[in-house]
TrEMBL record:
Transmembrane segments: none
Signal peptide residue numbers: 1-19
Protein name from the UniProt record: Rhamnogalacturonase A/B/Epimerase-like pectate lyase domain-containing protein
Organism: Zasmidium cellare (Wine cellar mold)
Domain Rhamnogalacturonase A/B/Epimerase-like pectate lyase: 115-334, 460-524
InterPro entries: Pectin_lyas_fold, Pectin_lyase_fold/virulence, QRT3-like, RHGA/B-epi-like_pectate_lyase
Matches recorded under CDD domains: GH55_beta13glucanase-like
Keyword annotations of the record: Signal
Amino acid sequence: MQSLLKSLVLCSFLQHATAQQQYREPAPAYIIAPDPTEYQDWLPPTSYSFSFGNKNDSVTPWKPWHHPRPPHYPRPPVCGVQNPSPQREFWLSTFKGAREGISPFLVDGHDYKVFRNVKDFGATGDGHTDDTDAFNRAITDQSRMGGGKGAGGSTGQPALIYIPPGTYVISSSVQLFIDTQVIGDTVNPPTIKASSQMRNNTVMIAGYDFGQPSTTNFYIGLRNVKLDTTGAASEDTIYALNWAVSQATNLVNVDFIMPVDSQHIGIEMDGGDSGGGSGLFMGDLNFEGGLIGILFNNQQYAIKNVKITNTRTGIAVKHAFSLTIQGIECENVGICVDMGPIDVAGSINLIDSSCERCGTVVNGTSSILLENISVRNSGPTLKVNGTARPIGDLTGKTYAQGNVYRDGTGRPSISSNGTAPIARNGTFLPYTNRGSLVGSDGRYFTKKLPQYEDYPVSAFASVRDAGAKGDGVTDDTAAINAALASNADCKITYFPHGVYLVTDTIYVPPGSRIVGEVWSTITASGEHFADENNPQPLIQVGKPGEVGLCEITDMLFTVADVLPGAILTEINMAGAKQGDVSLHNTHYRIGGAADSRTETACQTESDPCKAAFLVMHLKSTSSSYIENAWLWSADHDLDGDYNQQIGTGRGMLVEATQGTHLIGTGSEHHVMYGYQFNNAANVFAALLQVETPYFQPTPRAPAPWTPNPAWNDPDFSGCTGNVSQCYMQWALRIFGEKTHTLPLYGQGFWVFFNGPNYGACTGPDGVCQINIVDLEGLSKGDGVDLYGLNTKGVENMVTIGGSGGRVAATQAENAGSWGGVIAAYLF
């Protein structure tokens, strides 16, 4: 906390105007220039340790590959579920399936309590009693500790903290840990309220687990609560939430209620010396009152659907490398988005938003993309270095501040008059071709996290009722497939926490709705997934040509062994309407945990194992909405100190054409590519985040794999001059003559190391990697638009035609961000 306090100068603000008056701007003196060297992706494993000291060694899902099956699979009850309607109580509060979670890799894990109601630990929710200790008891019960330091490492002691309706008064911090999901009642969201005893500089909810650096704060969640600071003194600095966290975390459906004209801050991101984290997504948030809504300090984020009212500053950016804000509504706010008085390294994309009675919509000097912003009764839409840009209302318009490439030739950027260089000057651009990606309001389509608050408890069926065990040993394939077949267009299938071992493909038919508990795990094992020449999906969503509904939330998909033929998820199905096929807060992990043999089998430096073929395949027949997904080949161990040399072949392969939305996704440490778009069309993305494998170029890509032409793999044959740093993963490949309508907002492509032992970068001029983005076989006018392209450690930001192709944009000519930044690259 002290590092944040030192970096803020919370002063010199003018008094709030009344709600009927236009805001006057606060002096933005609280922003301090970041030191980019402080932002490490994560510290080498020698700087901290995880401990799974109470591991159940009898659970070995990889031995043998032929697993005993349960004796029978009773079908779930006949449907009979009525249409959704308002409910008096949230199904989670009474559903028995939520009490069936186990932790199979923990000794006595069948007796471990995953589900924890705070009232069972003494919380009253009466609006008067101090419930601080009860909350912290619920979180720490059964010897749970911060930072993966408990008996079960980072994955062996999960906890779902359920908060019933009520007002819960707290007087000091409630501390969350890694692998904790806090869920308030969705029908009647509870209020967590600061008492008058809360002292200056206190955080109400400490989402940042202090036991690990912020960049390894994974698997933490908070949803369906109201955080109310109005009971604390307005003149004190009170933080409703510290959210200095990283990937696989979720902050959804939270209201921040603060006194108007106060020094209170809704969200801060202070991880001490480790920075603010490396997050992917937050959304559907409301802020009322306070000094600042979100004090942003993180590597990258997609922020979706945020309402900010009567606040001095909506989003104050202390630091951001890549930030995409979609659907922010500021009303009676001094500055809606404030990047500070000096150049903040990185880029911001603000799209599909509005300001009513704002002093300034955006204040800043860095790379900025503004698109489709309604401005009413407000001051300047954009201020740069204190000077207002005369751009006015941007409804149906696109404006860029920063370096822009418009012709695809790599020539110097040109302005709208066709001649003058625009380097770091603003310009209007052609309005983005959005195709079929918009909703009825003309904005990009979005969807809220399904929580089924309009369904009774009778609408849910536990997969355990179909015979699945989730014990990490039993083959649950038949039981899961039977449950999904029976529940389609009928029941919502609930997976109590556990490790569900399967030896064949899980087919998810149209009409399926799946809900996990603190990232319930389905893991692949056996010969079915072992042949890289005949790869098979672990999770198959529909079949080609099928149309219908499929919703998957709060799940984790992985492999139990080294399986070169495993595709973790394949989506074939299209929705009857936008968003019908959707995955939310569902993640992918290859290795790095006690539930997989890859943790111990893949340790040889310079020889990464082929643990999986492909993480996610969006096939040409599909349409999908994917929100908050981390596709991670583990670079370090979550449950111990084993070296992790894991060479997953491919990250996300997108061939979809019927409408795809990627909101807050990351694809890290895969050998050949992070994202590959092949003849894809009608794909919207808010944040694509990639890290190159730390072991590359030792061995050089594509090793250990042999490129497969049937999968359009890159072969790196164009690399010349024996420069090893050319033979490294593409963060993004886009090719195919049928490719069109790809508006992609916010890319963070990071390269940190060269070779084993986290070696220093040894490429030309000390770069880590030569090429990072590949565009091939595209025609002008195809609508391949990259907004806010950010890179670290690379020489060439954009290449046309592969590793031996023409260099279109270099990091040196686009200095900024964590190395290079381009406001817009329009092919």
